[in-house]
Amino acid sequence: MSPAVPLSRTGGDTSPVPVAPVVRKAPPKWMEEDAPSPDKVFFAWTQEQRCTHFPGAIPEAPPPGWAAWYAGALAAVGGDEARLRAAWIAWLEDAWGQARQPVCATRAFVSPEVWRRHVPGQGAQSAPAAGPALPATEAGATWGQVLAALHADGKRYVAEQLARLSPSLDGDMLVLEASDRFAAASLHDECLPLIEATLARLGAPARSVLIHAAGPH
Hints:
9 helices; mainly alpha; three-stranded mixed β-sheet
């Protein structure tokens, strides 16, 4: 007697039940390299955490200037990425951030006045002296990264003086406005090469720097 052939649940049809192929989610375009840079690896982690905290959230792409922000922020915390990760988790628990749309957006987090507030152990002596409030723009974020990097390099006095400047972007030029022409001329002569070198080290989108006086010349 031939062995019994198992019947399908729907009757006598014994043809194999088709199995749906496994579809692997493609990585986002910004992370297509075989060996992504550390800033991209960190960003991917932030989005994993964000979507875990907020299941309805849509993963973001890195905002403009992300690589420069990461380099400057990492320098500001002494190269300890764990402090940046702790800051991101604190951001996801921030009531103000949760009220934003999209929720806890990266663009808001990278503003100097936001991410620094969530860095564990952040004290009055660990940040540059307060100057004019930096605008929540790409120029403000870039300038904040430069000041943080200078402060981390031990150039606290220079960072304090430069913190008085107001930043804006004109294409790929970082425009820094001083209170008067004398301050502009002094900072141009003493600090311009240092600012340009720091921008280059951070990989910031700004390629050149202009320091000028506020108001008519």
